[in-house]
Structures are given as structure tokens and as C-alpha cells.
Amino acid sequence: MTEKYIIYCDESEKDGRYFSDFYGGILVESVNIERIENDLFALRTKYSFYREFYFALQYSEYSGKGFSVAIYPDTMPESEVKILEFKKWCVEAVKNMGFNSNLELIQEKKSHEHALLQAIDVIMGAIQFVLNDKHLEIPDGKTRRGKKTLIKEKVYRHIRGEIGKLSPDNYRNFNIGKSTANYISGSVSDRYLMPYRHWQFIPTSHHFNSDLTKK
Asked: Cα(23)–Cα(135) distance, rounded to whole angstroms?
């Protein structure tokens, strides 16, 4: 039987105060998809939450021999010409990485059909929310933070707490503003073996503005 992996991908916060352009993904073995989605559905049923968690961008499907890649972006509010250009770019990008793909494998999808897409959106949203100090914001004319802000901060703290419980124990010192080290073997294989990976990308050509750093 051909082994198959599915990568669900999303993006968040294109223009943050301190951190921008968040990209995340969940790598799942296809044999576990149904169980995980059932667990998420059971959780939503428990709390009577049936709406979409959040919008999501895309997921890519890597399958078997030769690794064919399918990319399923969320419905794009663009012209047919721009959408076609995007799909062609995706196909070429995949081929440049040594995988197989074609235009038929690049299909727009609705995010509410994929619970895992919504899950990665929640995780990234929580991370960028705190990194950009949105959890400290006080509405104009008010003296305290709003209820939604407090709830979102609680969601972040719960997610951060769960990451800290992961094995190995190094996750206890996880810093959301820094890249995770190779905790297991110290080699590149950790990128696939570690349950959670976190990267901070800094462009080669960048300008450091000390006035915009977090205090």
C-alpha cells in the first residue's frame, strides 16, 4: 500500500506591528485523517460549536510513488486570469522541488469543509496575536482590555501550554519569538520527527529598526 501524507497549510497577518507573514502547516498521515477529524468533530459537538473556526488558505497533498502534489487553496477573490497565473506558478514551484503536479491538481476549496485547516488557523492566529502585542490593546475611550481580547489571550495561553507539554522536555522553554532547535537528534530529520516546529525567517536584505522592537 502506498504511503500518503497530507499537508494542510495556511497564512496569517500580512502586516503585523512586529511580526508579519505567518505561514503554517500540519503534516498528517492519510491513515490518521479520519480519526483526527472525528476527534475534532466530537470536541465541537461537546461544546455545541458548529460554525467555522476561521478562514483558511490551502492544503497540499503528497502521495506515494513519485510524490504527486495537489494544492487546494481557499476560494480566491481574484479574476480568472490571476487565479490561472497563481495555479501555473504553483505547478512550476512544485516541479522545481522535484515533485509531480499539474493544473488539475490545483483546485480551490472551501475552508469550512476542512477542520484541520481551521485548526492551524487558530494556532497561527494565537501566536501572531501575542507576538504583535494585540493581547495588550485597550479600545479607544476605555481603561481596560476588551472581553474578546481577554478570551483570545486565554486561547493563546492554552495553546502555548499544550506545546510546552510535548516531548522532548525542551518544549518547556519554547519561545514563540524564536525558531525551535533540533531537540531530538540534532539533525535535519528532526524537521519530520518533532511534533511541533517553529521558524523565524529574517530576509537577507533587511533593516533593523530598534524603535519597533518589543520591550
From this structure: 20
Of 41, 63, 58, 39, nearest to 50 (Cα)? Answer: 41
State how far the Cα of 86 lies from the Cα of 82, in Å rounded to an integer. 6
- pTM of the model as a whole: 0.71
Domain ranges (residues) in the chain: 1-117
Residue 70 is placed in which grid cell? 495537489
2 and 115 Cβ atoms separated by less than 8 Å = no
C-alpha cell read off for 58: 490551502
- Are 106 and 87 within 8 A, CB to CB? yes
Radius of gyration of the chain (CA): 19
Among 29, 31, 37, which residue's Cα sits nearest to residue 5?
A: 29
In the chain, which stretches have pLDDT less than 50?
A: 1-2, 54-65
- Write the pLDDT tens digit of every residue in 150-197: 988 998 999 999 988 887 777 888 888 888 877 777 777 777 778 888
Handedness of CA 186, 117, 57, 52 (dihedral sign): negative
| Beta carbons within 10 angstroms of residue 96's beta carbon | 8
